[in-house]
């Protein structure tokens, strides 16, 4: 019986320690993300890319990235950023990936308007990073392990409206 009591106590200690290490996020950390609202543009070798964000509730933003080709708008992904309990999630649905299913990335780090979202189980990317540089500039980055190598791509947007 004593052996089981010690095991249960140790299990309780490990669970308590692991829970204490989980960051707790509130509206205080979520509200600065409202700075994403509006229309953003990034020029690239393949043409212009756009991100458009709007507030869709106190605890939720919705966005989409797209490109324009021959006067057609081609949506590349739809995204929801939401505060759920004590966690913030970046959840994209990417065209032609993951069977069009949402893939949640949990906020693991927030500092100076830099948000790092992570999903270690996703094939690529495992991290999505948004940094609100100024009211007219944001930097997005995807990164992680791709085919056994660390890889990443930066997306630098300027505000159109």
Question: What's the quick description here?
Answer:
This protein is mainly beta.
Give the CATH level 1 class: Mainly Beta
Strand order of the main beta sheet, please? 1-2-3-4-5-6-7-8-9-10
Shape call:
globular
Largest sheet: 10 strands, antiparallel, barrel
By CATH, the architecture is named: Beta Barrel
Give the ordered list of helices and strands: HHEEEEEEEEEE
For the termini, the CA-CA separation is: 67 Å
Structure description:
There is one protein chain. The protein is mainly beta and 161 residues long. The protein has one domain: Calycin beta-barrel core domain (Lipocalin), CATH 2.40.128.20. It is built from two helices and ten strands. It has helices at residues 2-20, 27-30, and strands spanning 38-44, 47-57, 60-69, 72-84, 87-94, 105-111, 114-118, 127-134, 137-146, 149-159. Strands 1-2-3-4-5-6-7-8-9-10 form a ten-stranded antiparallel β-barrel. The longest helix is centred in the N-terminal third of the chain and has 19 residues, at 2-20.
List keywords for this structure.
56% strand, Lipocalin, mainly beta, 2 helices, 14% helix
Summarize the topology.
Blueprint lengths: L1 H19 L6 H4 L7 E7 L2 E11 L2 E10 L2 E13 L2 E8 L10 E7 L2 E5 L8 E8 L2 E10 L2 E11 L2
